[in-house]
Amino acid sequence: MIDDRITDKEESGRHITLVCLNHPELNWSTKNIGSSLPDGRIGFSRSLFFLSSGLECDCKPSMLRLHPKYSTLESVPT
Q1: What does the pLDDT look like over 2-35, one tens digit per residue?
Q2: Hey, how many other C-beta atoms are within 10 angstroms of the C-beta on 6?
Q3: Global pTM?
């Protein structure tokens, strides 16, 4: 089976949190569908939802990375 998730730390289709490399205090949410690239970039073309208060940064979407909180979580089977 092909794993079409950005991260294996959450079930496919569930919302996950992303942060900007330049502004790690800002958070976005997207469904865990797509892939992550070897350099950490998120490979997807779906809706992003801004979760933080205030204004979004002007950085390119390629600056978004998986929130660091996922590094301590166990993998979820497909």
Answers
A1: 578 999 999 999 999 999 999 999 999 999 998 8
A2: 23
A3: 0.87
Which residue type sits at 74? E
Phi, psi of 35 (to 5 degrees): -160, 165
Q: What is the DSSP letter of 14?
A: S
- Look at residue 56 in the predicted model and tell me its pLDDT: 96
Q: Shortest CA distance to 23 belongs to which of 49, 72, 56, 1?
A: 56
14, 76 in Cβ contact below 8 A? no
Residue in 25, 38, 33 with CA at minimum distance from that of residue 7: 33
3-state DSSP assignment of residue 22? coil
For the chain, what are the domain ranges? Answer: 15-71
